[in-house]
Amino acid sequence: MALSPARRSTVIAVLLLIGAIWLLLPKILLVARIFGPHSGVSLTQPEALALHEKDKKDPRVQVVPKIIHQIYHNWADPGNETLPADWAKLQATIIKLNPEYEYKLWNDETSRTFFQDEYPWFLPVYDQLPEKVQKVDILKYFLMRHYGGIYIDLDNGCQTSLDALLYYPVFLTDGGSCSLSNNILGATPNHPFWVMFTDNLAYYCRDYFFPYVSISLGGGQWYETLMWEMYHDLKPAGDPPLTRLMIDNHPVYDASAIFTTGRGASWHSWDSQWYSWMWAHCLQGLLGLTMFAIAAGLVVNFANSVLGRSRRNTRQNGVYRRIGADVEQNAGVKGD
Q: Per the UniProt record, which residue ranges are transmembrane (predicted)?
């Protein structure tokens, strides 16, 4: 039985939709890994302090070296290493409250020298990164791999010692906004997570046209989250899960116990505002896209139905006209 034009259009549309979903399924799964529930153990800052028991000697072994890393690449005035006043105040709190820690502030020159000396195989990738902030992000990870210690963004400060965090072989931050964060990191040197993380970076460091995507997937928070999930998928069953330190504007956890937060987002580009809204409203965004797809499908189906009826009527009217003309012509012949 032959299908009507409207049904044929519907079947074709459904088949195309199934094909598109099949082709996009790997990408959909990738997005789900980045923005879905995260692996690892969540730890609030008050919990970390309580476990440390400041008034007693903590029996646990400290595995993170007492090194603090910060990075300042002055894009507006290269060569000027003077921090903006608000960042300098935050920096001062870190140094004052952690006097026993070695402090390292990395600039453009020392950053590149580090790669040249320690990871020359990555230097060509580092030099060709499409966005400047990618150099900052990627340096963080290699510092964690090589030195270990604690990395802190310049827009974060301290209001107590970092000692409570020295017991976690790897930790990063979870701000509760879909993907994980990389503003504060901690590690023991050469941990398998950071080795896997940095070994896979070169493949993802490319230009994705949209600056925010190039930054986020080419070494930023999306890449970080993807590697985090991959590590937990692949690690031996006996290895413990890694730690997510709850921070920033998470709606449930107290974010003021160890760290403070100042002015940030110095790297945001023209497309950042749109992405920021989308990630802050993940559920609404997905529902909106779904409703749009359904509405578009209904509109297309309705249009096809109308066009199908129009074509049938046109063909039928044409037949009627031809039949009428034949009847009139025959009637005229018979009348003669």
A: 12-35, 286-307
Distance CA 222, CA 33 (A): 9
Torsion of CA 132, 139, 121, 228, to 10 degrees: -110
Helices (H), 119-210: 123-127, 132-146, 192-199, 201-204
**Beta strand ranges found along the chain (DSSP E):** 41-43, 67-71, 102-106, 149-152, 156-158, 170-177, 179-187, 243-246, 259-261
Instruction: Identify residue 283 by its one-letter amino acid code.
Output: L
The residue with greater pLDDT, 206 or 198, is 198
Q: CATH says 24-270 is which class?
A: alpha beta
Across 95-111, average pLDDT: 97
Report which residue type is found at 278: M
Q: Got the DSSP string for 216-281?
A: HHTTSHHHHHHHHHHHHHHS-TTSPP-EEEE-TT-SSS---SSEEE-S--TT--TTHHHHHHHHHT
Radius of gyration of the chain (CA): 30
Residue 323, both tokens: 């039949």
Residue the block writes with tokens 């920021």:
276
pTM for this model (two decimals): 0.73
Q: Which two tokens stand for residue 33?
A: 């890994």
Q: Could you state, in order of their start, the residue ranges of all structural domains in the chain?
A: 24-270, 281-336
Q: Contact at 8 Å (CB) between 222 and 34? A: yes
Average of pLDDT values for 180-207? 94
pLDDT in tens, 124-146: 999 998 888 999 999 999 999 99
Rounded distance between C-alpha atoms, residue 253 and residue 104, angstroms:
30
Q: Could you tell me which of 120, 206, 114, 106 has the C-alpha nearest to residue 153?
A: 106
Residue 301, C-beta contacts closer than 8 angstroms, at least 6 positions apart:
6, 9, 10, 13
Positive or negative: CA dihedral 91, 272, 278, 18: negative
